[in-house]
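Q: What does the assembled structure look like for these inputs?
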Amino acid sequence: MNNLKIKKRLVQDKFMCWGVCLLATLTAIPLFAILGKVLLSGYDQLSWSFFTEPTPTAYKAMKAIEAGEPIPGGIANGIIGTMIMLGMAVVVAVPLGILCGAFLAENSKTRFAQFVSYLTDLLQGTPSVIIGIITYVWVVVPMKGYSAIAGSVALCIMMLPLIVRSTEETLKILPASLKEAGLALGGNKARVMMKVQLPSAFGGIFTGVLLAISRVIGETAPLMFTALGCSFVRFAVDKPISAVPLLIWEFFNDPNLQELIWGASLFLLLFVLLLNLLSKYIAKKWNQ
Amino acid sequence: MSDKLYKIILFVAALVMPVVCGGVFYALVTDAYEAFDYFGFLNFLTSSEWSYTEGNEQYGALSFITGTLMTTLLALIFCIPLSLPVALFVGEYFKGTKIASVLSTITDLLAGIPSIIYGLWGFYTLRPIMISLNISPQGSGVLTASLVLAIMIVPYAASLSAEFIKMVPTDLKESAYSLGATHAEVIRKVVFPVAGSGIFSSYILAIGRALGETMTVTMLIGNTNNIPNSITSTGNSMASIIANQFGEADGLRLSSLIAIGLILFLITALINMIGKVMIKRARIV
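A:
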């Protein structure tokens, strides 16, 4: 009788272990399913011209489909647009985020810092579509038109909390003796921050910036109401501009351009995953 | 640079957060005011009408609030049986091994995939499966959206739960083993009770993620402006109605959409705040 009970418990134990392993492996399937689907449908669209030519008009695409040819053109306008908007967003968000993070790390006990810290969490949790609305109200309406500037403001707001958090956390992890040694050598606080603390925290901050970029580069919703999209390569920052995720959304909605979806998605997906892996690698190197 | 100037610069940089957050709230409230003023606050929340025939515009948020709550709740239900095993795998069974770090890398990558690509995958892979299984005629709907949403929030729930499971003190577990408990019993009787509140709070934060997810839901929910009457029927969530109609809206409709945005903002802020407070409490224990 007692033996039977023990057996039952052991069977339960085995069952639980195998169940956990099975279900945990099951979670890995979607990643490979998504990667597989995008790779298989998109690899034959990637060519040199796919990256150097702008999106074709629906009419051109329709004619090509009728003639049985592959759709001409590519996503150059999206790549340029993404780079311009991301560049402007990074230039503003990185210094501002690092300074704000430094403030939080230096004054972590004060009421005001706790309030700012709470607001950082709030902003980080705000849905991207709401950031889109806000940027529309703040930038698009006063400027009387969609623009690359509006798009980069949206991206900047989304990146800011991520950079603040990673800066703050990395600075807090640094041994206090590092800062004290700098101060003991006669440097004032600003000098110690610039010459000792920030360089020591570089790895963590850089990882945070990379992750922030990889998070906003695929954002579609906030760009729909701010950058709008544009069918040719454009460098003006006060005019509507395209972005890779915006192009995917356009292709998804236009039956004539649907063939181009997968090439664009493959490019975006590989770029984002590479950024993620790179940041993981750097974080690991830095921790050693 | 003097210490004083340095302090001022840091303070000004930190002021950005209150300014941005205050600006977000202020802009949402002032632009939503027209809709609340016209329809009445409670009426706007409880009406499920959404018609923009000129002269008789009727807007209410109820169908979209229901849509959001349904997709989020279903996503949570589908997410638990996937993320809890991952958390146990990484944090308990294979803690610190190579295979655990592989799995956690995989889930991290899952978190990095842009939501529009999840949407595409759901539309071109999952939707045909739903049609062939005869679950719904067009394949899109609340169920399809929440299935993909569940996959999207697994990484958030799993990585945070794993952290709490890892923190369960070893001597507690070892004393249970020494009394003859099996691994499964240790997990049920020691790990879950100790890490329980932390695990719970990680699911609250996952809910916060799911509430605001836009593109995936927009591509998969079917985009009809009605209260979904079953889990397979089509509908719209708060985020998806904004994504669908914001570009073409003006006047009262624009204000109504911003009002929906305000409601969504408040709900996510509340959920995230509850989650953060619970996490802080769980860490102390």
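The mean pLDDT of chain A is 92.
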